[in-house]
Every structure is written in structure tokens, then in C-alpha cells.
Design goal:
The protein has 199 residues and is an alpha/beta fold. It has one domain (3-193): Maf protein (Alpha-Beta Complex). The chain is built from seven helices and seven strands, in the order E-H-E-H-H-E-E-H-E-E-H-E-H-H. Strands 1, 2, 3, 4, 5, 6 and 7 form a seven-stranded mixed beta sheet that branches. The longest helix has 20 residues, at 43-62. The radius of gyration is 17 Å and the shape is globular. The two termini are 13 Å apart.
Length: 199
């Protein structure tokens, strides 16, 4: 039996698997993302490298505990007019980020890495979605920040919760905005690993 390990502590990513009734083991990678962000400015390369680093961090943690393992890792970043936007540090930072996103279209870019071992087969890819926000007032942003949903979320919001009311249009994968492009994952698992998530 292949054990599926999600190299993430993200509630949204775990919830995606729960909704499609696939059992996973969630293990946090605890890598220092800032080291990568200081060195890599291209958003696509950055999220791919971060997802790959998470894979190998978790692989080290589990060592020989499982004989047949598929590790899935993802990293998501928001890009707006060339600026890379990660997670807000505090309420003031969350306000600054949401003020920038209001009334504009931003890109959600997710790097995804999949490692199957003992075969040691690794696939690294990415997906991208565009999200257009309503033009929010300062009061709306402050009211949203009080809900604390911005904590730990790239771009200081979660489309799965209250911020769904701010979304004017979406182009691309919805699950990618949650942090894991499932259509990309499904295709990679089918084409590269002969694993069918429907069975």
C-alpha cells in the first residue's frame, strides 16, 4: 500500500484531500523559506525550489518508517505587478497587502513536487491562477483582518472563507488558489506514476 504524505501543515491543503476522501499523513517540513526568498526572485523558480526543499526535508524526517511512499509538497506565493507577496507578519502587514490587492488582479503561483520512493522518482511542476479583487475600502479591510483568517495565508487571505466575498473573477484552477492545484496533481500522478486517485 502506498502511503501518501503531504509535506505541509496547511489546513486548506489538508482539507482538499479530506473533501475528495483520500487519506493522507500530514508532516510539516519546517524549512526556512526566507533563505530561498532572499536568493530567488523569479516566482516560478522560487515556488518550485521551495516545494522541492519541503519534499526532501520530510523525507529525512520519515527515513525508513514507510516502505512505499508518495510525498507531495507545495508552496504558494502571490505575485502582483512583479512584487512577490508571501504571508503577512502581523495585522499592519496584512492591511498593507490587502490594500495593494484591492481592485487589482494578482497571480497565485503554486510549485508542486512529488517524490515516490523507494524508486526515488521526483517530478516538479507549477500552476498559476489569476484572481481579481473588488475595490475594498479601508474599513472593509480592517473588518476582515479582525477575523484573523489572514494568518499563515499567502496574500493575507483565504478564498475558502470570508475573503470569497471579495473575489470578482478567477481565471485558472480554484484549488491552486487554496494552495494545491489538484488537476495538475491528478494528471502527474496518472501520467508519471500510474496512480489513479479515483480508485
Amino acid at each position: 500500500m502506498t502511503h501518501i504524505i503531504l509535506a505541509s501543515k496547511s489546513i486548506d491543503r489538508k482539507e482538499i484531500f479530506k473533501r475528495i476522501k483520500i487519506d493522507i499523513i500530514s508532516i510539516s517540513s519546517n524549512i526556512d523559506e526566507e533563505i530561498f526568498k532572499d536568493k530567488i526572485k523569479d516566482p516560478i523558480i522560487l515556488v518550485k525550489e521551495l516545494s522541492k526543499a519541503k519534499i526532501f526535508s520530510v523525507k529525512e524526517k520519515i527515513k525508513e518508517e514507510y516502505l512505499d511512499v508518495l510525498i507531495i509538497a507545495a508552496d504558494t506565493i502571490v505575485e502582483l505587478q512583479g512584487e512577490l507577496i508571501g504571508k503577512a507578519k502581523d495585522e499592519e502587514d496584512a492591511f498593507r497587502i490587502l490594500r495593494k490587492l484591492a481592485g487589482k488582479t494578482h497571480n497565485i503561483i503554486t510549485g508542486i513536487s512529488i517524490l515516490k520512493f523507494p524508486e526515488e522518482k521526483l517530478i516538479v511542476d507549477y500552476d498559476q491562477s489569476k484572481v481579481e479583487f473588488l475595490d475594498l475600502s479601508d474599513i472593509e479591510i480592517k473588518d476582515y483582518i479582525q477575523k484573523k483568517e489572514w494568518i499563515g495565508k499567502a496574500g493575507a487571505y483565504s478564498i475558502r472563507e470570508t475573503a470569497s466575498m471579495f473575489i470578482k473573477t478567477i481565471h485558472g484552477s480554484y484549488s491552486n488558489i487554496l494552495g494545491l492545484p489538484m488537476q495538475k496533481l491528478y494528471k502527474i500522478l496518472n501520467d508519471e506514476f500510474s496512480i489513479n486517485l479515483l480508485k
